[in-house]
Write a structure and sequence with these properties.
With about 260 residues, the chain is an alpha/beta fold. The protein has a single domain, classed as TIM Barrel (Alpha-Beta Barrel), CATH 3.20.20. It is about 45% helix and about 15% strand. It contains nine helices and eight strands. It has an eight-stranded parallel β-sheet, sandwiched between helices. Helix 2 links the parallel strand 2 and strand 3. Bound molecules: zinc ion (ZN) (2 copies). The site of one zinc ion has 4 residues, from loops.
Length: about 260
């Protein structure tokens, strides 16, 4: 029973009092890997992520400029990001999260597109996979990837798009990661998408501290709750959770092979 949380934010201050304990608890039970996300807009995040990687050799990370802050992207931020990616290369799984968020539009669409294109180029230059954040923007994200001729492994994290775009993502050989949203009562559309994702294209994640799965919705989320996400995915697919975890582990290892 080896769980993987493919996407969590252990650097966030919600975990200031217990992040080392949480990581220890995951690996003392039945976790194979954790992937924490580093945020170059928060200088402390890069340093803290370096420390978190030191807790256990099965913690990996991604680092990238989130679309929410695209208005604040500077050459210094890019420099910090590049330094981190190179320095931690052996524990970096991908560039990300990067992409477009047209739901919140915290930054202008123009800036989001510009910064996303930079992240795509960085991933290409460093030959790293990409982890995508996309809200109401899947078509635009796919278009930018096509223009950039991006052909390294790529994962849409916390997928909330529609089934047509999911089909297009899968057709291109990309991966889809499913969060605790799959456990929410109103997420029938997402459960239908889970049904069509082949086992060799799927990941499980918490996006903690956000998006606590049922029955803990609205509470602080932790990577430990990826169990509830994986169990729901397995239930929807009508398979034992062991089989799902085995597939997610294979997918992780395939992605990892690109980076080493
Ligand atoms: Zn995200
Ligand atoms: Zn996230």
């Amino acid at each position: 029973m080896k769980y993987i949380d493919f996407h969590c934010h252990l650097d966030m201050e919600d975990f200031d009092s217990n992040r080392e304990e949480i990581v220890a608890e995951c690996f003392a039970s039945d976790f194979a890997k954790l992937v924490t996300v580093a945020d170059p807009y928060e200088k402390n995040s890069l340093q803290l992520t370096g420390e978190i990687l030191g807790y256990n050799k099965n913690v990996f990370c991604t680092a990238g400029a989130h679309p929410h802050n695209a208005n604040h992207y500077t050459s210094q931020i890019e420099k910090d990001l590049l330094n981190f990616l190179k320095e931690k290369r052996n524990r970096v799984l991908a560039v990300g999260e990067a992409g477009l968020d047209f739901h919140y539009n915290f930054s202008t669409p123009e800036n989001q597109r510009r910064v996303f294109k930079r992240q795509v180029d960085i991933a290409k230059d460093l030959k790293l996979p990409l982890v995508i954040h996309s809200r109401e923007a899947e078509k635009d994200v796919l278009e930018i990837l096509e223009q950039a001729k991006f052909n390294l492994p790529l994962v849409f994290h916390c997928y909330t798009g529609d089934i047509e775009n999911a089909r297009e993502i899968l057709k291109r050989g990309y991966y889809i990661s499913i969060s605790g949203i799959v456990t929410f009562k109103k997420s029938e559309y997402l459960r239908e998408i889970v049904e069509i994702i082949p086992l060799n294209r799927i990941f499980s994640e918490t996006d903690s501290p956000y998006l606590s799965p049922e029955p803990f919705r609205g509470r602080l989320n932790t990577p430990l709750r990826v169990r509830l996400v994986a169990e729901k995915i397995a239930e929807v697919k009508g398979i034992p959770v062991e089989k799902l975890n085995k597939a997610v582990n294979s997918n992780f290892n395939r992605l990892r092979k690109t980076t080493v």
